[in-house]
Amino acid sequence: MDPKKKTVGFVPDHDADTTTSPGGSNNASTVNSPVSAFSNTPDLSSTTNNSTTSTPNPAGSATASSQPRSINASGARSSYEPMKSSYEEQWGLTPPTRSHKTASPRDGSGFPAKEQGGSNKKENKVKTSGLGIQANAGSASTDGPQSSNSTSSAPPSAGGPPSSGNKGGSQKPSAPSQKSMTKAERRELQEKQKAEKAARVSAGLPASGKKAAQVLNQPNSGFSPNPSKSLATSFPGAEAEKAIAAAESTGQARRREKLTKEIGLFAHLDPPKFANTALAPKDLHPAVVHAGLQMAQFKICGANARCVATLNAFRKAIQDYQTPPNTTLSRHIQTYLNPHISYLVTCRPMAVSMGNAIRYLKYEIGKNLELPDEDARALFLEKIDNFIRDRITMADQVITSLGLQKIQDGDVILTYARSSVVQGLLLAAHAKGIKFKVIVVDSRPRFEGKQLLRALAAAGVPCTYVLLTAIGHVMREVNKVILGAHSLLSNGALYSRAGTAVVAMSAHERKIPVIVCCETYKFSERVQLDSFVQNEIGNPDELVNDQNNNFGHSSTRCHPSVRGANGGDAASAAAGAGVLTGWRESRDLKLLNLLYDLTPSEFVTVVITEVGLIPCTSVPVILREFLPMMQQ
Amino acid sequence: MSKDFDVVANYKSLLLNSPELSMPVAAIQSLVELIKHSNATTMSEFMLSINVASQLLKSSVRNSISLSAGCDLFLRFVTRNSQDVAEFEAWKATLIVRGQSFVEKADACRYKIAELGVPFIKDGSTILIHAHSRVVSLLLQKAAENHKRFKVFVTESSQTHGGIRSAKVLRAAGIPTTIILDAAVGYVIDKVDMVLVGAEGVVENGGLINQIGSYQMAIVAKAANKPFYAVAESYKFVRLFPLNQYDLPTYNADTLSFQELNVDYDSKSNETGADQASQGSNPLVDYTPPNYITLLFTDLGVLTPSGVSDELIKLYL
To answer: Within an 8 Å CB–CB cutoff, is residue B259 touching chain A?
Structure first.
């Protein structure tokens, strides 16, 4: 991390972080995690115990109730492992308790016989179609029944009046045989996993302590499925693969259920996704799998980076591709790539940039069906390289040079979060010797602006760092707002990181020009009038606390496992800010972590593209006039 | 290179000899003259000479916006056709022919605009215009010829006194015209049915660069909910995208600098504020953002501001 520069107005540091965000320091989260696990678990176990006196899973309930106590007695250090396992046990517990839980509110709320009759299958269907999450159910077929369970298992949320009928569907008796089987399996696997993890912890990092362990994304993150997953990404070996498979088949699915505590207005959107190699077809190219995992964990983030990562992965896949007998490369390659593409979609909803790049690739493939294999391969590789060069790399250079014309001495430029193009532009302007100041506006939960701030401060650009809440205050000093874009839509609307609209609107209010930097390959044919129709839901646990948003470790910050409910619970409980701690158990509480928002075109003054400065209402003209030209 | 040919002098004499000629057309005409006199033998030498000449032209006048629109358009035309050059001399000849036909057509532009604009003028209406614009005057004359009855307020525009010139032209055409002070725009706006202004240049977002005072008229018109129409030939479309008033190429450190205020008015009692303004401290043009403009009457048709950017993208991509 960079030292505090003299030029920096606000100190871009941990301190700033902690002061701006409520809650304690990073250390607190790790040290106190067991405590919170303790404080949290009884919560759940008690509620479950109330209803589950006759649980068919005695082992689970026993561990759940006993574990926390042991933690309490043993203290922080030894509670390390127990904490984790107790957490697992919680999850292990859930299936049996779930049924009882669902049963009890139902009895209480007086929705009687109706659900008894409902068969599991049917109810599921109703549920999914009602919420419009077919895509999800379809993509993870094994999770189908479970996900419906989940909605019902969060009895508070679904437990309300009308959907109680659905809940009946999650009843075990009517469940198909596969389900009960998997449950048995699950428990078994879990035990195995636990043992594995214990071994790992004792072998790997006992001395290094929690901090080191956390940095490494190691098991103490307290999440049973994730440690193995992160392991898998770091050492993509057979062992890790096994661990993944185990984790995926057990914990992953259940974790997902819990996470899809969806909000009615956004039920049509995909629930937050998690990298899942277990569900991926076996014959995927490792480069694509790797890229997908990185995107799912937000290690690759940002429209440009994701697009380049995708294209490079596809490039490798095409390079290593072996044409099966009785077909030609150009005819078969698309069938070969399709599962890769759908795998990427299961990792994280496709970015517009990726979609456009893939469409271009498919277009090129479709155009050259008659080429001999090696020629076709060479051509496609070249096309991919050219796309990255022309539409992204060169485009960014042109945008930078055009943008430089709009930055003058004495400017105070406000920017929001981080865009690679904006960062490049600001650094180029500084390198050119223009004297200007930058106000970096940032927001929870992702704090992407810190990355930009670090780059600017390192270059010696005078910076100020504020959170979005201070926008009204700083806006009076600003004379230009420069923003990045995820996509520009055909009606001129700007689709970008959540919070952009607020920034653009408050700038418009003060008649401050809003400059958007966007390559033309991010332009979309889509039209969208609000942020609801299409958006992406992030992991709601990111909102629970932001203790893990340490400045230095973007991986830990972004890693869903680290930021999982357990870690969050731990830290917030430790800090005494346990408001959101048990949010999944709270009946009326749902969290929404939207990743994008929509800025209407009237709030954008100019869009800087590689074809020049255009008003954002000219997006369709570019799509119509310019893109066909590029495809030739 | 054609050292013997002075583009700037040619341009100035063109403007002097025919006051009806607008700046971009004159610029193109003198560039065509340059080509005629050019004895360049290679393509690159030729292109260089044209580029240098257009730079000279742009720097020769203080307010280069409409001039640069003409130069850029012609240069664009030259470069666009430079790929398929078979024979250099023949190509030069075609350029000259095309350039001349462009100049001829430029005149027809105004008549077309007048034709398009006349239906917008209602019988019995009152129109507010700003300073002097040939194309606006022509439009109003055409309307009067079509037996429309309307009255005109024209701002004096103290810098150039263009309003007085406009009033003369319009009165000659039998249109009742009143000259008002520039400061009286807000006073008369309630009596006005529409505002009509010309343009030095139309920028990429459909905004307007015009003689100083247009912007405040647009603001007043917007506040009073009166339509604000701009009248511009399409050769005035210019590839600029100003973010605000101070983002224009005409803006420099001297514009409205405060040192000028130290000049004692009394000591130069024979000089008016307008004279001082023309000496550098005061801006000659301002920029009207597109959201203040109702419609633009151009020879390409009646466009919304965003339509202008569509046309420009088509032209320059």
So the answer is: no
The tens digit of pLDDT for each residue in A206-221 reads: 444 444 444 444 343 3
Contact B243 A605 (CB under 8 A): yes
Mean pLDDT of chain B: 87
Helix axes A329-347, A286-296, angle to 10 degrees: 20
Same domain, B142 and B281: yes
Domain that holds residue B18: 7-108
pLDDT for A126 beyond 60:
no
Q: Last residue of some domain: B73, B108, B143?
A: B108
Residues of A in contact with B76 (CB under 8 A): none
Please give, rounded to a whole number of angstroms, the shortest distance from the CA of A496 to a CA of chain B: 22
Point out the residue among B243, B247, B313 whose CB comes nearest to the CB of A614.
B313
**CA-based nearest distance B67→chain A, Å:** 21
pLDDT of residue B5: 79
Co-location of B133 and B229 in the same domain: yes
Question: May I ask the CATH architecture of the domain A286-396?
Answer: Up-down Bundle (1.20)
CB of A184 closer than 8 Å to CB of A175: no
Report chain B residues whose CB lies below 8 A from the CB of A613.
Answer: 204, 241
Q: Does B310 touch chain A (CB under 8 A)?
A: yes
Q: How far apart are CA A84 and CA A88, in angstroms?
A: 6
Q: What is the pLDDT of residue A338?
A: 93
In a domain, B115, yes or no: no
Averaged pLDDT score across all residues of chain A: 69
- Residues in A closer than 8 angstroms to B244, CB to CB, are 511, 513
Cβ burial of A246 (10 Å; 0-12, 13-18, 19+) is buried
- CB-based contact A605 B290, cutoff 8 Å: no
Q: Do B290 and A406 touch (CB under 8 A)?
A: no
Residue B113 lies inside a defined structural domain of this protein: no
Boundaries of CATH 1.20.120 in chain A? Answer: 286-396
Q: Which CATH number covers residue B26?
A: 1.20.120
Does residue A313 or residue B1 have the better pLDDT?
Answer: A313
Q: How many domains does chain B have?
A: 2
CA-nearest residue to A619 within chain B is: B310
Domain final residue, candidates B63, B84, B108: B108
Q: Domain spanning A405-534+596-619 has what CATH number? A: 3.40.50.10470
Burial of A96 (0-12, 13-18, 19+ CB in 10 A): buried
Residues of A with CB under 8 A from a CB of B: 406, 480, 511, 513, 515, 602, 605-606, 611-615, 617-618, 621-622, 625-626, 629
- Long-range Cβ pairs for the range A20-27 (8 Å, 24+): A20/A467, A21/A444, A21/A546, A21/A549, A22/A575, A22/A577, A23/A545, A23/A546, A23/A547, A23/A571, A23/A572, A23/A575, A23/A577, A24/A547, A24/A571, A24/A574, A24/A575, A25/A547, A26/A547, A26/A548, A26/A550, A27/A211
* Same domain membership, residue B290 and residue B154: yes
Residue to substitute from A402, A605, A608, interface B, most B β-carbons within 10 A: A605
Model confidence, pTM: 0.69
The answer to whether residue A9 scores a pLDDT higher than 50 is no
Residues of each domain in chain A carrying CATH 3.40.50.10470: 405-534+596-619
Distance from CA of A364 to the nearest CA of B (A): 23
